[in-house]
Design a protein that fits this description.
about 550 residues; five-stranded parallel beta sheet; four-stranded antiparallel beta sheet; about 40% helix; disordered C terminus
Length: about 550
């Protein structure tokens, strides 16, 4: 649920001005009458609603028991809200369900419903219009950016031939026109050199041709016009990477068609993939947002991914994560492993790899967040972002894939962090973005916490297990037939590397051991984890 809408709903509920918008139901009791079913002003509550597929009219039913056992915070049950919420989410539009409660689960009657249901609906409508008035005060319609053609403008001389308009230093095109679709009447069109075009939409296309292929761009423009039902759509500029099309669409026809429908139609008509579609306003804000994300991600992105001597250990789990991300429109993956397995180093490598590929990346070290953060606005401020991370990433994902990385969620698990809201804030962020197209999420946690904290399990992430480097090196030792040295290791307390019993080449030694070897000799037993005789070192 959109945070801003929730805040507005809470304000409207507190102010109690919304009842002034109630329109009385014709031929029924009027607000304030003795027989009006509720005292004025009617009570309101901003709370969870359960959307179900059956009428709930029996307080002793199995459905009622299920709600009590698994969804105890439910205040209202209804049947239509989920569809509306899903439609809003798919269109990346803020949404909220507002219900007027007309009856209780028990003691329902058709006579009371006939009176109460219209009144409840009028109350819900009044509350909704009061919310809309507040929303409109703080959210103006985004302006359409005005641009001159900066690249080759697709023009037509009446025969469908393409004319390239070379840009001038002022950005104004010397010649311009339009592309005539098949069947369009012939006719020359003279557009003056001062003509400017309003770019309103940016399309991110994955195709086997580039911005220099004018013939394919002309075909693509014709298809866009046909699919959207608007002959005024023009591709003003095409840029590489993958293929960005800056489009003038004065009728907003492409946005009305919708990204998913347009993606399917373009795939069938032109054999191209529509990766994303955003407004020009959002595209222009992209550079500043990328800089904010880079600054916010410093703690994890600069995490050492190599040993002190500069050597890097290849981890096959990295390719597993990348394959999962690239194989789906959206994904949520949990990287789980024992302490010391190298989760932070691997996530740092993943984040930097995807950023180098041009992806927006937000990487968060959960264990470094301030404990006094109580909501997403506090998280935004801690990260130094100009807007809430859920809204920023959702908007950026409209154009192409983004990556959210959250490291060390286990540090905030219940038994370690029971007094702060940090884990709930991060998990809510995951839930808001988990089903959004082009959003990919990778979390990390230790094995025990991931398996036993119900909140972590409820995320529904696919898991990737990160093997300890020690286990791989031990496999090498077993395969080398060094039984005598393994026996010496067991006599030294069962830790081969702590006793120095296994003499592996540097490239096959685990990260922890190679780091210890570079320390002074008298410091090694304390850091080794197990001394000769099997006793753990005392803490200082």
């Amino acid at each position: 649920m959109d945070d801003e809408l929730v805040n507005i709903a809470q304000k409207v509920s507190r102010d109690k001005r919304w009842p002034k918008r109630i329109i009385p139901v014709p031929h029924g009791p009027q607000p304030g009458d003795k027989d009006y079913p509720v005292a004025m002003p009617p009570p309101t509550k901003v709370a969870p609603i359960a959307s179900i597929e059956a009428v709930l009219d029996d307080p002793m039913s199995e459905l009622e028991a299920l709600l009590k056992s698994g969804f105890g915070d439910t205040h209202v049950v209804e049947m239509e809200g989920y569809g509306a919420a899903k439609a809003a989410a798919s269109e990346r539009t803020p949404g909220m369900v507002i219900r007027g409660v007309s009856d209780m689960t028990a003691h329902k009657s058709e006579e009371e419903d006939e009176v109460n249901q219209p009144i409840a609906a009028s109350h819900a409508a009044a509350f909704a219009f009061e919310m809309l008035s507040h929303w409109g005060m703080h959210n103006d319609a985004p302006p359409i950016a005005t641009h001159s053609p900066l690249g080759p403008v697709l023009t037509d001389d009446g025969d469908g031939a393409v004319m390239d308009a070379e840009p001038t230093l002022s950005g104004e095109a010397k010649t311009a026109g339009h592309v005539r679709d098949a069947g369009e009447p012939r006719g020359d069109r003279d557009v003056s050199a001062s003509t400017k075009v309003e770019i309103s939409v940016v399309l991110n296309i994955s195709a086997d041709f580039g911005p220099e292929d004018q013939d394919r761009l002309v075909r693509l423009q014709s298809s866009l016009r046909r699919l959207a039902g608007s002959g005024r759509i023009e591709i003003v500029e095409a840029r590489a990477g993958s293929l960005l099309l800056l489009v003038a669409d004065p009728d907003d026809a492409l946005m009305k068609v919708g990204e998913r429908q347009l993606r399917e139609a373009l795939s069938e008509a032109e054999n191209v993939e529509l990766v994303g579609m955003s407004t020009m306003t959002s595209y222009e804000a992209r550079a500043g947002r990328l800089a904010d994300l880079d600054a916010a991600s410093t703690d994890l992105m600069r995490w050492p991914a190599a040993l002190p001597d500069g050597e890097r250990m290849e981890r096959p789990e990295l390719e597993t994560l990348i394959s999962r991300i690239e194989a789906s429109a959206s994904s949520t993956t949990a990287l789980i492993g024992q302490p010391g397995a190298g989760k932070s180093a691997l996530l740092s490598t993943l984040g930097n790899r995807m950023r180098e590929a041009g992806w927006p990346v937000l990487a968060i070290k959960a264990d470094l967040l301030d404990p006094d953060i109580v909501n997403e606005a506090g998280l935004r401020d801690r990260l130094g972002l100009g807007e809430n991370p859920s809204a920023m990433l959702r908007d950026m994902a409209a154009l192409g894939p983004v990556l959210l990385v959250i490291d060390q969620l286990d540090a905030l698990a219940g038994y370690l962090d029971i007094k702060t809201a940090r884990l709930s804030i991060l998990l809510n962020l995951v839930r808001r973005l988990g089903a959004v197209d082009n959003v990919h999420i990778v979390l990390s946690s230790r094995v025990f916490e991931f398996q036993h904290d119900v909140r972590l399990r409820a995320v529904g992430a696919e898991s990737v297990s990160l093997e300890l480097p020690l286990e791989r090196s031990a496999c090498v030792a077993r395969g080398a037939g060094r039984g005598r040295r393994r026996l010496a290791a067991r006599r030294a307390g069962g830790h081969a590397l702590a006793s120095g019993a296994v003499d592996l080449p540097p490239t096959q030694q685990p990260i922890q051991f190679r780091a210890v070897r570079q320390l002074p000799t008298d410091a090694r037993p304390t850091l080794g984890g197990t001394r000769a005789g099997g006793r753990r070192p005392r803490r200082a």
